[in-house]
Amino acid sequence: MNEQLVANTFLYLTNAIVFGVLAFLLWQFYRGFGSQHVKYWQFSLQALTTSQLTMTVKAFTALSSPTSVVQVVLEGIYQSSYFVFVSLFLIGLYIAQTQKPLARRYVVAIAGASFATAWLFTLVYAFADGHVYDRFFMRETLPEFLFGLAYMGMAFFSYRTAPVHVSSRIMQVSFVIYGLRFFVFSMLSTFMVAEVWFSQVIRFFAFFDIGSHAVIGFSMLIWMQGAERSAANSAKNKAQYLGRHDSLTGSLNREQVLEKMPELMRNASKHNKQLSIFLLDIKRFKFINDTYGLKTGDYILGEIARRLRDSLFQPQIVGRLSGDSFVYVFEFEHRQQISRALNHLHELIARPYQYDGQDIMLQCSVGYSFYPEHGDSAETLLQLSNLALFHAESRNEASKQYSDDMQVQGRHLLAVEKAIKLAMERDEFELYFQPQLNLLTNKLEGVEALIRWNHPDDGLLTPNQFLPDVDALALNSALDNYVLDKACRAIARWHQAYRRWVTVAVNITAVEFQDPKLVPSIQALLLRYDVPPNYLELEITENVVMTDLQSAMDTIVELQTMGIKVSIDDFGTGYSSLAYLRKLPIDKIKIDRSFINEMAENDSDLTIVKSMVRLSHGLGKRVLAEGVETQTQLDILRTLDCDAVQGYFISKPISEADLVKYFKR
């Protein structure tokens, strides 16, 4: 009998060591994978290890009374740890099979219920010496029946679920066998518990359980290896997919577009068809990112890609080349299809994008070329379409087809771009200043800053000689910042040298005015040069305002809150909407020179100027007339109560050296 106790003790201790090692290995897997099911399997094996350690102590103390406190506590620990093992193991398997995480509160509730049930079964008849069979039923028969149901249920669930790895089929078969084992034991213990041979049945099932637990434990390890291989294959497939597709939109990337194009060209030639290569660039997309956030921008890019893929023309290629630039290639037979395709593309992009309760409107520019008319290689066709797109954007056109003369213009712009950037680095640009006369005080009210280029080869260039190229190259923002910096430096320099503050007006383009960084950038300049904000004036055109009225109003309010003046330049040549003029919190309106030129000879122009002055004063705005070139024009403007003037009659734009002569006097 003592030898039997020693054998059982050694058996359960060995099991505890084996399952403890398996739990440690699963913990190592969990540290590497971090999967939820691995964590619960690790906990389940820890619970199984606890149950086997408890059985080791029970086997060693088997001769003590089963109703003693020690035996009851040991039985409770064994039952609860085994119940928790089964529940956590099945939870982990469910998560592994479905790949769906289970909320922690549900796991705690299931494990807690299992723990409580085990102690309930243990404590019923625990200290009743006369209820041996009832105690055996509560501790053995009923739990075994419940375990049989659990394992058979999980076997059925595994059968209905697609196998994840080969180990899932091993576990499925094991569950069926293990479930039958519990049902058989439950049935035999109900009817045959009093038979002499039943003790041998118990001993047989004890060894059977040890083998079954080992199979389950090692199946977990096999599952982990399968999961590791699956993760490696998944990573490899994902890398291959990302190597061919844009990760954000799912469209082809540039390399795959270039790889797929030759085959499309061969097929098109074979069937006597042509290809149209459209390049689309989303207008003001940076503004969307800055205003609505990167998450909104990512959504819009994905939606654009989806719309292009699902379009009616069934494109052969939809790719994202970079940022907000897409390529759209489709096959056609007749040139009439191109105009319909262009209209369709613009309509697709212009359709509102609804995100987070907001309707966002966009437009695009399109440049396109044809195969085989314009080239016979993918790289060439993309380059030519990109050149056409550049011309469309620089001329503010919706669409542009490539033509041969674009190559010459492209080479010119390439050279000019390099020269302009180098000129900024070398400070070759110079500010000229046109004085503005206050008609009430007959004193200098301020100056307008106008840029000139001291070109090393061509001499002094006026704005009309280089600003079109600046606009075509989208360097407006860089030049605006350059001029703002020079203007603030000049204001500070004049005050330091002549103890005089002079207001400088600087023209701001639409691109820079819509940039969210404009206000903080100006703040930084004013702080750097210690310039009071009220001596800097920004001039914007009506078209800048109407591009995005609400955004423009918000920016103007921010600038005026800082103390910076904002005026409308060239008033009357743009939208001239009285509604927006009433809403805009601007300081000054500058009447365009086209109305001043013939004001003395043309009654219509005189009436218009008179109305503008009255309207502006009625709205609380000051008025400055541009292009005053004669004494007669000046006298008329005085009569009309115009506040200030500028023009060649007052002074042409002059260099800083000439301007400071006024300060010296």
Automatic annotation (TrEMBL):
The chain crosses the membrane at residues 12-30, 76-95, 107-125, 145-163, 175-198. Keywords: Membrane, Transmembrane, Transmembrane helix. It comes from the Bacteria. InterPro entries: Cyclic-di-GMP_PDE-like, EAL_dom, EAL_sf, GGDEF_dom, Nucleotide_cyclase, Rev_trsase/Diguanyl_cyclase. Residues 273-405 form the GGDEF domain. SMART domains: EAL (SM00052), GGDEF (SM00267). GO terms for molecular function: cyclic-guanylate-specific phosphodiesterase activity. SUPFAM superfamilies: EAL domain-like, Nucleotide cyclase. Residues 413-665 form the EAL domain. NCBIfam families: GGDEF. This is Phosphodiesterase.
